[in-house]
C-alpha cells in the first residue's frame, strides 16, 4: 500500500493495516490495527510502539491477517479479541450474546442509588442475562447477594456461567436457560433486565457491527420495540420482594411507553436515569 514501507516488521504491518481499515470506513484505524496486532502477537500495544522494526512472527502474521479481514467486514472488535470490559469485570464474548456496552452500566448506577443499604440485598435476578454482565457487576457491588441469571439461549447461559468463574463469582451465581421468568420461584430484592428493544423494522438500519453481527434474538423487540417489556411488566410484580426494586434498560424514546406498561401492571416508576449521552436509559420500578 502507498506510504508504507514494505516488509514484515511491526511498523510495516501497522501502516498497511491502518490504511486497509481506513478504506473500510473503520473509525480509529491505527488504534484498532494496534489492538489486533498485539492480540495476534500476545503482547501489549506498548511493546509494538517500543520497537516498530521488530519482525512479526509468521504464526502471528496469519492470525493478524485473518482478524484484519474480519474487522474490515465490520465484525466487532470484541468478537475478534474474545473478551470485553464491563463495569470492573472482564467478560468472555461470543456470537450467542450481545457485546456488553457502556450504556448498560447505567443500570448498575441506578440500582446502587435505589438500594443504598447494600448489605440488605440478598437475592438478585437478571432476566435476559446474555454474557452475565449486569448480574455479575451487581454481585460485585452487593457482596452479600446471590444472583440468578436467565436467558432464552442455552449457549448464553453457558457463557455467563464461564464469566462468573472467570471473575471469581461462580459460587454466588446460577444461570438458567428459559423463557424470562418461567423457570423461577421466590422473590428478589433486585430485578435487572436489558431486554431486546429495537423495533423489528429498524434493525437493518443499525450500524453494521450490530445489524450484521449481533444475535437478532437479543435485538428484536417486535413491531414497536416493547414486546419484551410487556412480558417483564407482567412478571416483575410476582418476583419483587417487599421493598425491592427493578431496573430496566430502555431504548431511545421508550420511557413513556415502558412506564405506562409498568403502571398498568401495578408497578411504580421511581426514576429514569440518563446515560452519559443524556438518553433516558435505566427505569427504576418499585412494587405496588
From TrEMBL:
One of its GO terms (biological process) is methylation. InterPro entries: DNA_methylase_N6_adenine_CS, HemK-like, N5-glutamine_MTase, PrmC_N, RF_methyltr_PrmC, SAM-dependent_MTases_sf, Small_mtfrase_dom. Its EC number is 2.1.1.297. It catalyses: L-glutaminyl-[peptide chain release factor] + S-adenosyl-L-methionine = N(5)-methyl-L-glutaminyl-[peptide chain release factor] + S-adenosyl-L-homocysteine + H(+). Substrate binds at residues 194-197. GO terms for molecular function: nucleic acid binding; peptide chain release factor N(5)-glutamine methyltransferase activity. Signal peptide: none annotated. It comes from the Bacteria. Residues 112-202 form the Methyltransferase small domain. It is an enzyme of class 2 (transferase). Residues 16-82 form the Release factor glutamine methyltransferase N-terminal domain. S-adenosyl-L-methionine binds at residues 128-132, 151, 180, 194. Keywords: Methyltransferase, S-adenosyl-L-methionine, Transferase. Belongs to the protein N5-glutamine methyltransferase family. PrmC subfamily. HAMAP family: RF_methyltr_PrmC. Methylates the class 1 translation termination release factors RF1/PrfA and RF2/PrfB on the glutamine residue of the universally conserved GGQ motif. NCBIfam families: hemK_fam, RF_mod_PrmC. This is Release factor glutamine methyltransferase. The lineage of its organism: Bacteria, Pseudomonadati, Pseudomonadota, Alphaproteobacteria, Acetobacterales.
Amino acid at each position: 500500500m502507498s506510504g508504507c514501507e514494505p516488509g514484515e516488521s511491526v511498523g510495516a504491518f501497522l501502516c498497511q493495516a491502518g490504511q486497509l481499515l481506513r478504506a473500510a470506513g473503520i473509525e480509529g484505524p491505527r488504534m484498532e490495527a494496534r489492538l489486533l496486532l498485539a492480540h495476534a502477537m500476545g503482547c501489549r500495544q506498548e511493546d509494538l510502539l517500543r520497537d516498530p522494526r521488530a519482525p512479526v512472527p509468521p504464526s502471528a502474521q496469519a492470525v493478524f491477517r485473518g482478524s484484519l479481514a474480519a474487522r474490515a467486514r465490520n465484525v466487532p472488535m470484541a468478537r475478534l479479541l474474545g473478551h470485553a470490559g464491563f463495569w470492573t469485570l472482564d467478560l468472555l464474548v461470543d456470537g450467542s450474546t450481545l457485546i456488553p456496552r457502556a450504556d448498560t452500566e447505567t443500570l448498575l448506577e441506578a440500582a446502587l442509588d435505589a438500594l443504598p443499604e447494600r448489605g440488605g440485598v440478598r437475592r438478585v435476578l437478571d432476566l435476559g442475562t446474555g454474557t452475565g454482565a449486569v448480574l455479575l457487576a451487581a454481585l460485585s457491588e452487593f457482596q452479600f447477594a446471590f444472583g440468578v441469571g436467565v436467558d432464552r439461549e442455552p449457549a448464553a447461559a453457558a457463557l455467563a456461567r464461564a464469566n462468573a468463574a472467570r471473575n471469581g463469582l461462580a459460587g454466588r451465581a446460577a444461570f438458567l436457560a428459559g423463557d424470562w421468568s418461567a423457570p423461577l420461584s421466590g422473590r428478589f430484592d433486585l430485578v435487572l433486565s436489558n431486554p431486546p428493544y429495537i423495533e423489528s423494522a429498524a434493525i437493518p438500519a443499525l450500524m453494521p457491527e450490530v445489524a450484521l453481527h449481533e444475535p437478532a434474538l437479543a435485538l428484536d423487540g417486535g413491531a414497536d420495540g416493547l414486546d419484551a417489556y410487556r412480558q417483564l411488566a407482567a412478571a416483575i410484580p410476582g418476583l419483587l420482594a417487599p421493598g425491592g426494586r427493578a431496573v430496566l434498560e430502555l431504548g431511545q424514546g421508550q420511557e413513556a411507553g415502558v412506564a405506562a406498561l409498568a403502571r398498568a401492571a401495578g408497578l411504580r416508576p421511581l426514576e429514569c436515569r440518563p446515560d452519559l449521552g443524556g438518553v433516558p436509559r435505566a427505569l427504576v420500578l418499585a412494587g405496588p
